[in-house]
## 1
Amino acid sequence: MSYAVIKGAGYALIHTPDMIIHNGTTQTTERSTNPDSEYLKELKKHIRTYEEALKYPPNQVYIGNMTPNDLSTYEMPWYDKEADIKERFGKLGEIMPQDEFITLMKLVDVFDLVKLENNFMQDVKKKLLDHPLFKEDAEKLKEGETIEEIEKFIQSQHAEAIYNEGKLVGCVKRAHDLDHNLTSHILFENLVVKASGVLAFKHLIDKNNIPIEDIDYVIECSEEACGDMNQRGGGNFAKAIAECSGASNATGSDTRGFCAAPTHALILAASLVKAGTYENVVIVAGGATAKLGMNGKDHVKKGLPILEDVVGAFAILVSKNDGIHPILRTDLVGRHTVGTGSSPQAVITSLVTAPLDKGNLKITDIDKYSVEMQNPDITKPAGAGDVPEANYKMIGALGVKRKELDRKDLLSFVKKHGMVGWAPTQGHIPSGVPYIGFAKEDLTNGELNKVMIVGKGSLFLGRMTNLFDGVSIVIERNNGKVENDSQQVSEEKIKSFIAEAMKDFASHLLKE
Amino acid sequence: MTEKYGAENIIVLVGAAEAESAGLAAETVTNGDPTFAGSLAGVQLGLRVYHAVEPEFKEAVDEDVYEEQIGMMEMVLDVDEIISEMSSIREQFCKY
């Protein structure tokens, strides 16, 4: 069977300044334990404007207006640099402002749980009518609520408040008065996942000229769970996102695995396509408001802006081989298994060198490794170091141990086979997949031949196991040969049958 | 544990990726938690403490196992900086 291909990718960031304050867990925890803290007083002074978020170089990389290579030419830190391009829309997606996103949450809400103040909604409706992807949806917006009604929902019915520019503009209602899994807080987070997932999905379809009716299956791979008290993680974000994106011929399901889930989903999608079960599978993930401002205390302490001010989302289309787009080598997959062990060496061996060995490849045969592409501008001041760089050093060091690389070339390996990180620290969002949009280019029109996507996840956070997890897959330039499975195999078989018969006949003659 | 087994019978092994964080962990089990946050705030245990990439530990274990488990990280980490940080903490605060 022919390998599946990466047909396209879409990416979205949403600048959410008020959600940092009201929905990021670092801030909500601080407010409940230490409401008069210096941090909460200082916080607002450190929040960037939408224009500042547009100018931030890593954000322009995320939506494809700059390449990771372009970003590496900017000297760190990046928060005080301006990108050459400051556009809202990019080759791979967009950076949406908060007011439009709040209204998008209303648009994707089919249970009338999102209530928006009428003036706010009408103002934003005008903006969305100009949005290239939401004009038709925006036309459906009718009358909003009065601010008094919204205040009533919040005060007497435990609705979660929605703020914009410091002002109350709406709320998300709870969906049940007793069910802990349908509280307004959980529904708010789930609607953020759904809305941001739809945004990335729509960009994927739009940027790659894909007929939406061709999508057969959707795998959602974020880190939230939706369901009620009888099935907390019942699902199914995938189908909900497919419905709002207009993929009427699709069904789907959710795949979970903490930050490793997107790479798990990529391997699943590639396998489903290669098996012939489906022709076009989209993997999609929305973002998390809980992680907004996660390292905010360190950033504020060091006088930096709150750099975790965007929700991230992505969508990737995996399709049957077209002879053009890069192929997903489902035979070159790495797995951190239950028995792998937790030492960094065991982890990198299982994820990087095990799949390479299957293909008789050396560490240096992979042109680019896409690991956890966390933006070091965010992680370094928080004491977590430069995550991609640390990963590249480990991969390189393993190459030295395998005698595929000279020790003195370790640093040049990191530079040549690695990239600087540009993705926001939204858990699953930076994990391997931010590079796929660029990989599609690099492996078709570009110079590269093989890349590896590596996803890792901290399963222990869920307290069900002490284990950590990870999977990886090699993506390769398409050699243009498409096996037409049914035809070619049968032709070959016919030829071999004929050859066999001729041989029999010849030996028969010889005997005679 | 120090009450149960005696501080002189305990060796602490750290595996932090950076000298600064290794030093913090080492200081915690010798001079007490420098952040004054945890249960070891102000408690001076003075334990013997080593990092996994230090020669004292490396020489004490099987060479092959060391290579298999730590060899790669030894190449990645700034071993000299870690050794100097750990030695300095031991010289100042170690009682055994």
## 2
Amino acid sequence: MDGEADGMVSETDESGRKRRVHGMLKLYYGLDEEGKAAEQAKSLDPCDINGPHFDHEVFLNKLRRECSLAELMDQETCMVKQIRSLDSDMQTLVYENYNKFISATDTIRKMKNDFKKMEDEMDGLSANMAAITEFSACISGTLQDQHAQITKLSGVHTLLRKLQFLFELPARLNKCLELQAYAQAVRSHRRARCVLQQYSHLPSFKGIQDDCHAIMDKLAQELRQKFRDGGSSAKDLSECVELLLQLDEPAEELCDKFLSHARSRLESDLQGLEAEIRPYPSASAVKDASARRLASASADNTPKTSAFPSPTSNTDILEFIDRGCNEFVSSLCLVITSYQELFINRAQTGELASKNIPQMANGKLNAFVDDLAARYFSLVERRIQEEKGVGDNSLLVRALDRFHRRLQAVTKLLPGSAVPNQGTEIVIRAATERVKQYLSALQSFYMDSLTDVRQALATPRLSMAGASLAGGGALLGGPASGRDGPTSLPELLSSLSASILNQIKSVLASVHLFTAKDIAFSNKPYFKGEFCSQGVRESLVVSFIKFVCQSSRQFCDSAGDKGGSTPPALLLLLSRLCLDYETSTISYILTLTDEQFLVQHHSPITPVTTLCAEAREAAQKLLNHYVKVQGLIISQMLRKSVETRDWVNTIEPRNVRAVMKRVVEDTTSIDVQVGLLYEEGVRKAHSSDSSKRTFSVYSSSRQQARYAASYTPSAPMDTNLLSNIHKLFSERIDIFSSVEFNKVSVITGIIKISLKTFLECVRLRTFGRFGLQQIQVDCHYLQMYLWRFVSDENLVHFLLDEIVGSSAHRCLDPAPMEQSVIEVICERG
Amino acid sequence: MEDDAPVIYGLEFQARALTAQTAETDAIRFLVGTQSLKFDNQIHIIDFDDENNIINKNVLLHQAGEIWHIGASPADKAVLTTCYNKTSDSRVVSCAAVWRMPCDWETGSPESPDDSAHNPQTLELLCHLDDSAHSNAACVLWEPMGDGKRVISLADNHALLWDLQDSSTQATVSSSATLEGKGQLKFTSGKWSPHHNCSQLATANDTAIRGWDLRTMSQIYCIENAHGQLVRDLDFNPNRQYYLSSCGDDCKVKFWDVRNVQEPIKTLEEHSHWVWSVRYNHSHDQLVLTASSDSRLILSNMVSISSEPFGHLVDDEELSEGEDNHQEDKGKEPLQDSVVSTYEEHEDSVYAAEWSSADPWLFASLSYDGRLVINRVPRALKYRILL
């Protein structure tokens, strides 16, 4: 029913209803783009009266099925109403379009008339044009001859002018030469060159050509001269080069000349720098003179340096680098820029590009820069190596920074050059060298501190207003002395430890400058990573800690077995130092380092535990060595006292031998000394009167019983029974064993060594009755005083038992002394 | 197997002197000298029956005094020397003498072991090794592998070379060397080198080791401060003429090349007290036995400085035996210097240790309380060295 509406896609601006109808029509033909997809689904419904798939049967059936009569009636009226309205819509459309059709027909008719008139006029025009053509042909036919003549004449004229130019060329060139208008001369010559070349077989032209050649040669000569003189400005120079290039001068030669010219200037800069460096061998540089002798050979040859023995000994490195940057690097940059302008950039655009000049020129430039830079670098490196003083690192860092920064200019100019990398390498080398110097400075500081400590230990402390020192003036560490010096041991330890720590901190601070944010090269990956971890952490901090441990251990080895060279107190102090390192200092230092340098560990690093283990090992070794040395000192006394006496023919004991008192005194002083640095430690619990009790058991009951058993001649088999039984139940004693880090363990170790020596010495001697009694007295005396020092007093009892037992065995007339008498003698002292 | 267990023999007296019977190469026999001030001292001849793991002992009386050192003649099984202390008039004198065992000691009623205790036979004195000028003998050394006619005694600071004549009944000093220097110098021990035609002697005094040329009786080398403290004992490597081991009160055992006496070539620090004795195995010089007053005996395997640093060289004969051996050889990794074993059977200081002269895999050690322990090289190591 919408078929009629098809042709009349309306442009009318009618009411909304029309638009709706229009919309519906559009919809019916599926023209609507927006709703296409959505409509699709809707319009598939056969009951949709507006849809394209409308089926009236289905619709009617559906209505009939679903609706009541009233509804059907309503539906019917509604339908009729709709149909009627549609009909009227259609009529309106038909009417409107009919009007338009009428007016169109009118217009067409009018156009037909107009075209007929135009056709007539066009016919007239074509007739006129034919007449004009005819006249024109007639005229050109008459003018033909003259035209040819004129053309010929004008050709001759130009030729003559050219010839004139050629003939005048030599004179003109000469004039240009006089006026030094080289550019114009070259231009003129270039214009004529080809022609002359072509017609050179004609004698006249040949002459001109020869003349020109001569003049141009002269000109080239002059240009070259100018170029060579070098005094001219960069602009002149570049003009020269350009002209010479146009004159077919070989570019290679020009490059060489240019560069050699530049080289001479740069070299004078370098010589100036070289003069700044101290001549060899100066006092401070003697150390590594051999290393640098080769490098210095050239320096020595220059008269300038030898003329002034030490011209710039006070120029610091910053000034030096400054001068290097300002003079050498900046002129190098200038040379590079102008060179590039002359040979590379220009040639690329000009007609010379084909000659591969840029490549050649670049190669030459690179070689040139590399060569000069290498010399510059060697100078800088020499200068850096002279920076031995560790004092102020900031100057060096700033100098290196400047050095590095200025080389960046070269990078920009010469992107492919190896120069900046070499520069960075120099900075890196300088930095690592610096770290090494710091390490050795730290090491020597440590050794110096140790020497100081040693001196402090060895100096009689009388000068220190001996108030605190009861005995006064005893040498600490000497066998006799330990008792007075130790007051200062903890102070010495703390001051040593603090000064080392301070030194480490200040070194770290100095080294830290290398990675400061405002330093350009700190951004380099090396300084971010490897320098921090490998350089600072490993080769500075870790190496130093290792050095401390190692040098400490060397005290144990190198001191020799005599134990004389290192004062025992130093061993003790170092042992404590290493132990402190193990417990806290190492991790503190490393944490400090890691924090300061934000170390990112790419490469394997030494873990804290390894260092701690090393420190602990060193501490243990030192302490063991201390025990050994002290034990030996006492052993030696005991051994001498046993070996030198005639025990068979000795008098009845009245006193404790002096050597025993000495042993007790020394043990006490060692106890005090160790107590200053090490904690008390655990000992087996004993009651307050344990000494008395155990002592009485030891001396009266057991000992008496044993003597009784041992010396009844009827029972030779029982000789060792008791002592063997005793041994069965006691643990084996390791004499020179490792000790723990506490006072009791240390003293126990020393006493063990001493008493075992005593025992072995006694076994090698033969005793008389009084000899045995003297040993009894001595042992009782030792018993009275030594038990309090050791962790397990039974140990002392056991060893002293053995001594008395052995001397009884070795006695010709074993008659032991009464216990009460022994006690009296001992208490009398 | 059970026979690797140590065999222990107890003496009634304390003892320091132990030696293997050098001239005896069939039976495993050790001589022990006792130390007693109150009873007659004895020499125990200890035979070890390897197959039955049984010890047989014979006792000879040594009435002269307590024995500090004992040495067996390399030529005559029955001859031995002792250094002993004699006490008279409350004076103690050290002497040395050559003795002969009574010829029938071996036959002395083996069926009743107690018998020997009842009436032990007495040693027969052949001659004294003392003269009026030199006494206080520290030790007597037989010429190694000699004919039993030459001995050296070390007395105080003299080394005396004696010639024994008339079946050892006569001893004359043929030459002597004197140690001179500050203080009272005294030889503590010595060893006669089996190399260089037996023309060299090494002695220890205090911390120094000295070498002597017996032909001129002059010092040829001196290792000052060989040990931190007293040097207790020496031994020559039986197969490498310049190699010498020493031990001392610094708990160390050191190995020296006497051509370069600045540094020891090797140092062992296994003992925790003084080391009193060091002995190379007679046939396999990588095996070193050390005895210490920490009551331990340590057997070390010093391959790197032995005469067979790469293990036993394979003979052609063995090569032809087949491929099995080859594969085994390849499987063996080179031996490292190591402690083979620590023997803790002793309760008191061990002053002496000796290898058997008959069985190279067997050794005895003697502690002060009179305990003699016979041990063997662990079987695994033995096969490793042999194969």
